[in-house]
Protein 1
Amino acid sequence: MKKLLYAYMGLVYTFLYAPIMVVIVYSFNDARLSKDWKGFTWKWYESLLTNQPLIDAAINSLILALCVASLATVLGTLAALCLHRYRFPGKTLLLGNIYLLTLSPDIVMGISLLILFVAMHIPLGFCSLLIGHVTMAMPFVTITVLARLSAFDENLLEAARDLGASELKALLHVLLPLTLPGIAAGWLLSFTLSMDDVIISVFLSGPGFDVLPLQMYSLVLRSRPSVNALSAVMFCMTLALIVLSQFFANPRRKTATVQTPDAKS
């Protein structure tokens, strides 16, 4: 039974990661077209360092993703706290709309925001992308933090109040620290969504502000082999970010061993 389970897991992981491994391998291919192997080379990685529009787009995407992740995390966490702790008219409707946004197609959201910005005479660029990506990412943060709050023991807050803590202090020193893993997961998810988004960025990026996913899409359309190297770099950066987050989420606990002398009879 275990061998069958391992075989099934191997098939699942192969199905998920085999295409990525193929892209990484062909990022070292010396051929102009990826279908033929012509030898090992580093030139596609070197070309990334000399492609100034690509570097500018990467910097724009990084700045945008950091702003989106921070703003979406703050707004999503506040929304999750309100939905978890308070009762107010329309709470069920608001929660349903949050779930609806996570299921809504990106192309519908992109077209809707584009029509809104054009009607309000808002220029397309960094601000429009920031609003669009925050709108896309905030519901995921809210759901992630809500899932963490659902396992929270309310008796801890009552104990903090019994010990003299105000509601604000109990929130800052008890509730938020215990919810921090969910908040960090929401931040990472928002950062990833912003860095990877193509559809909304197509509609909301102006002529003076380009982002990395659109540059990668143009490289694919022009059959540039450097897109394989760029994909490999992004995958390695994502993997490093996940490992780093796991390291901080589960720090190694040092256990001290106490040696006691043997009892003498």
Protein 2
Amino acid sequence: MKRRVYRISKAGNIKRLALSEEEISAPLPNEVQIALECIGLNFADIFAILGLYSATPQGSFIPGLEYSGEIIAVGSDVKGKKVGDKVMGVTRFGAYSDHLNIDSDYVVPLPHNWSFEKGASYLVQGLTAFYGLFHLGNLKSTDTVLIHSAAGGVGLFANRMAKRVGAYTIGTIGSPIKIELLRKEGYDDWIVRDNNFKDSLKKTLGNRELNLVMECIGGKVFEAGFEFLAPQGRLINYGAAHYGNNSNIPNWPKLAWKYLRRPRVDPQSMIESNKSILGFNLIWLYNKKELMKQLIGEMNELNLPAPHIGNTFQFDDMYNALKLFQSGKTMGKVVVKVS
């Protein structure tokens, strides 16, 4: 059978991403074959396409980590899933396609009242927020949580999860046009990031202790968050938007300058100040199937509202979807509809 895919010949330039047609084999015994309906965009996609992600495959590859669709074939060893099931799932690259073979352990049922768009907007960013807050961050109801990129997919989920347990949330955003969404989502307070971010954070905290930071920016923003952490505070580092830009190719001199000037933390000072930094990426979690199943089950118990969809694009318009997502102007999830 033929399928349509977006394949990049070699990481390093978004314009190398090209739509093509190729054969797809029958699923292996442990796999299901899915006719994809929607693809969820993630910043890891951009970093992989540009060659800035350590997990980027060598040579030609199909980007994409998140999808939803309908099962059209099952392998001989697959249990509990059947043709016709509507599902959502994650993959270690390969989702920029209209058909996909995937280990059946990586797909879960689409909630009956969710659209395919919402199904392609849940797992990657939801798991990032949940694992960071609860398994690494040890979130408590009395905590104050600083959430960067607060109007993005991870940020919105992190706020909803933190509010479920009664924590106090402060969101940071890059533009004031996103404030209304934060207000609607129930953030307790917010900061528009600018050159005075450190002073703004100090003023916003007042006499309140900062216990947990969901950090995905880097640079001076990272430094300010770590400085204001209270004793036993935890900074969960899961991204580095500081290195991103809106160009088709990496600006290597600028990236090198930022890399050489990146924040440095002395382990001895961490002992003396009783602060901690924990880092992770979802590719690592992808290799831990049983843990991922456990996390999805725990996350579902929170009974969160359906994801917020900010923008949708058609499959043939993938380039423009990526450019808008790369701009940092989006709110919520950016979804590409396959059919």
